[in-house]
Amino acid sequence: MPQHDKILIIEDDFLIGACLEEFLISSGYEALITTSCQEAQTVFRQEGDIAAAIIDLTLPDGDGFALGRVLSQEKPGLAIIYTTGNMMDASTLSPREKFAAKPYVYEDLVAQLESLLK
């Protein structure tokens, strides 16, 4: 069981975000949910001890991939999982990043998260 790592969720679809938040909490993580790039950056800076981010690529105020780059610059080594209903070229990701296609299986997403946090 994880040691209550803090995970930042950036997802603008309420139902997807709420379900992911609930699943992460039931899996032993602390989950913080945001719905936009701006809100995510504010929470990320306030919290300071975020272990990983799960970022939707299509957000109302920006690009999730660009957000991931900003967060990674602020905290090198941050584990990131990008999610989208569209195809993505995973070959461009760093070793600390993964991709999960929607609809994803929550257990698979947590397995990806755990592999990044090792």
UniProtKB/TrEMBL annotation:
4-aspartylphosphate modified-residue sites: 56
Pfam family, one: Response_reg
Keywords noted in UniProt: Phosphoprotein
Keyword Phosphoprotein: yes
InterPro entries listed in its UniProt record: Bact_response_regulator (IPR050595), CheY-like_superfamily (IPR011006), Sig_transdc_resp-reg_receiver (IPR001789)
Chain ranges of the Response regulatory domain: 6-117
Domain of life: Bacteria
Keyword rRNA-binding found: no
Identification of the protein by name: Response regulatory domain-containing protein
Species annotation: Sorlinia euscelidii
